[in-house]
Amino acid sequence: MFAVAWWLAGCSSIPPDVVPVGGRVTQGGKPLAGATVTFQPVRTGSEDAVGVSGSAGRTDVEGRFSLRLIEPDVPGATIGRHVVTITSATVVERDDAARPTGERVPARWRDGSQTFEVPAGGTDQANFDL
User: Beta partners for 91?
Assistant: First the structure.
């Protein structure tokens, strides 16, 4: 079913190394709504850094998300290892400065120390329990 939805989304304009990625974010077993999930590919010395884009998605009320590449704006993430960050903060303009507020995600999920391997066939099981 996941592959059919991917195909119907217009996969012909999607780069060949980009696959569908989705999952669910929970905190203490409960859905974390309104969080931003980002995947940034980990580059090795042998990879060409040009054209490698990260992906991002936002969780719904059930904590579910689907990633989209930043550039070009298409569904999915590149195949391979990614640094994963998750945040629930929103930016509020106050006193001529933008300040994040409402962070509920533990620091270890915001500091770039978490990783996820995106498989060649994609996945709808990129699940994270904070």
Answer: 100
Is 59:34 a contact under the CB 8 Å cutoff? yes
Using one digit for the tens of pLDDT, what is the confidence trace for 38-81? 999 997 765 554 556 899 999 999 999 999 999 999 999 999 99
User: Cβ distance 78 to 41 under 8 Å?
Assistant: yes
CATH number of 2-129: 2.60.40.10
Three-state secondary structure call for residue 48: coil
In whole angstroms, give the CA distance from residue 40 to residue 56.
9
- Give the percent of the chain with pLDDT over 90: 65
pTM attached to this predicted model: 0.80
Tell me the domain boundaries of the chain: 2-129
Six token digits for residue 31: 């859905």
For residue 84, the cross-strand partners are: 39, 114
Please give the structure tokens belonging to residue 30: 């409960």
